[in-house]
# Entry
Amino acid sequence: MNAVKKISVLISGRGSNLAALLDAIDAGRIQGRMVRVLSQRADAVGLQHAEKRGIPTTVIDVKAYPTRDAFDAALGDAIAADAPDLIVLAGFMRVLGAAIVQRFAGCMINIHPALLPSYPGLHTHKRALADGVKWHGCTVHFVTPEVDVGPIIGQSAVPVLPDDDEATLAARVLDAEHHLLEDAVRWFCADRLRVDGCTVTLRPAAAPPPLFCQNPCQHSQG
Ligand code: GRF
# Structure
């Protein structure tokens, strides 16, 4: 049996992905424990999802630090204090520098609202509509120093419908995000992800231990 993984989540706003993860943990679908939710904004309403459940929250106010490196170092120390196994960027709208990314290499993942490598960066739904693509979606990937580029853990595609506007498309993608992020965190916590260069492989789930001996006759054979 794997040990229960400690999870920290970074958010910047509404926190619906965070709420979906908390629901999945509460329902026993993820073998993990959320140890802290962090934000660079004190007014991130998503922090309330954690507070309601008694999960510690920390705000590292970006305005209190003179440089990007100083902010990243403070954020990194605040994360490391809990020694989490997994750090989830769930709508964390700030680019992290190479030092903090390397500090948590292999245990920091991000959800991005597009099918990478299409549409890295911001305004993904607007850009997808402008291009007339027929499929859009979301990606969960390991975080590397280059933004929205790391090894892809999973993707979920949704159709772009003829009457879609930015809001309807964003809502369809967001629903897919909640399911995909839950899957990715569950796989990480079950030690099912193997990273080989740019490629992430999902290993089979461990077989449950047998409840009883399947061939008792063998025991009586001399
Ligand atoms: C999500 O679409 C996420 O992919 C993007 O920002 C949005 C955050 O939503 N980076 P929420 O805060 O999880 O509701």
